[in-house]
Amino acid sequence: MLVEVPEPRPPAVTLTLLAGFLGAGKTTVLNHLVRNAPEGSRLGVLVNDFGAINIDAELVAAVDGETITLQNGCICCTIKDDLLLSLFRLLRRPDPPAHVLIEASGVSDPAEVLKSFDDARVLDVVRLAAVIVVVDAEQYAAVEYRDQPLALHQLLVADLVILNKLDLIADDGAPGVEDRIRATAPDVRVLPAIHGRVPVELVLGIGRGDLDAALAGVAARELPRLHVHDAGAEPGHTDHELVFDRWSYRAARTLAPTPLRAALDALPAAIYRAKGIVAIAGEERRVIVQVVGKRVELRPGEPWGPEEPRVSTLVAIGRAGGFDGDALTTAIADCETSDPRGRGLRDGVRTWIRGLWPR
Fold first, then answer.
1. Assuming Cys at both sites, which of 4, 90, 249, 276 could form a disulfide with 44, CB separation 3.0 to 4.6 Å?
2. What's CA 161's distance to the chain center, in Å?
3. Do both 21 and 149 map to the same domain?
4. Burial code of 155-190, b = ≥16 C-beta within 10 A, e = fewer?
């Protein structure tokens, strides 16, 4: 008689969910946690991006465990099954992580992500440490950011808010931003940060510990679902309150620096967030592009390998119907060059406010 042998149960794991609106600095915080985690922490990382191209995963520091990318959808809705499969893939490794960090996309609702874990197999092995929401202090001061329903929902689910980019606002502005956060979420803990630098032991050590309780806390709330679609495409749903358009560009081409700066400067106001890794003429390093609201930054990254193809990749997300994806593609394609000469980023990091770049 055959005896069915049950599959070994994965070991218990601590889980931290890192969320926050577009451009808040989630990947910067994640990198800080990974690079400075105590020795022997055995971290695993899951990175979700809304686009077909996962830029964030390319910017995450190496970990001793494993980094799994989840792209072309949100883990709060369209690819939630992929989230669970990836989590169990991590837990079934020969040397599984003891702590898994999940970076949600900027358009994910953490309440919906938590509902993804409402599965007996997950509840059996996962201990929720915390939902941590990263907030861009500069952007939160803007009315259009505070009025984003999704940004408010993220705060309501948070155990800890990391108030990031405090160096970008006046010294006397931080208390006002914190007061506005507490007006939305009175009981949340707020941790100030610059460049995502936070006390690692504090952030990785906090925890509510009870995933059942966390799920019960969000079960009663029916929050609007989020729908993201390609720029210029017809939405597949009409009953979503929160709708964004996305756009991407990828080509094995080098871009001329001056036209690229002009193209980034001219991005439509409806684009909330753009990011990428590009090859710039005259520059032997990758150039990391970050656009958050009106602020643009070009920063040198790792050198290109001698035989490595130089591929330029950009993604953007913005208000539905607020920008023309084909026009964006044309604007970036117009920056392509076969001339290897150029200044590159010899003058270092370039940061400016859109509309104020000196032509």
1. 90
2. 15
3. yes
4. bbbbbbbbbbbbebbeeeebeebbeebeebbeebeb
Dump pLDDT digits (tens) for 101-146: 999 888 888 888 887 777 777 777 888 888 999 999 988 877 556 5
In angstroms, the CA 358 to CA 265 distance is 10
H helices present in 119-244, as ranges: 120-125, 137-140, 143-146, 149-157, 174-184, 200-205, 211-219
Rounded Cα distance between 226 and 357, Å, is 34
At 73, list the tokens. 């959808």
* Model confidence at 95: pLDDT above 90: no
- List the structure tokens of 57: 């995963």
CB-side exposure of 279: number of CA atoms within 13 Å?
20
Q: Which position has the token pair 């007061």? A: 179
CA–CA dist 177, 138 (Å, integer):
9
In a domain, residue 167? The reply is: yes
Residue 101 phi, psi (nearest 5): -105, 125
Residues 6+ apart with CB under 8 A from 20: 26, 106, 133, 134, 135, 136, 154, 162
Q: Are residues 270 and 323 in the same domain?
A: yes
Instruction: Report pLDDT for 86.
Output: 82
Residue 65's SS3 state is coil
Percent of the chain with pLDDT over 70: 72
One domain, residues 160 and 250? no
| Token code pair at residue 151 | 């940004």
Domain count, the chain: 2
Asked whether residue 183 is domain-assigned, the answer is: yes
Residue bearing tokens 């790792």: 302
Report how far residue 337's alpha carbon sits from residue 343's, in angstroms, rounded to the nearest whole number.
Answer: 14
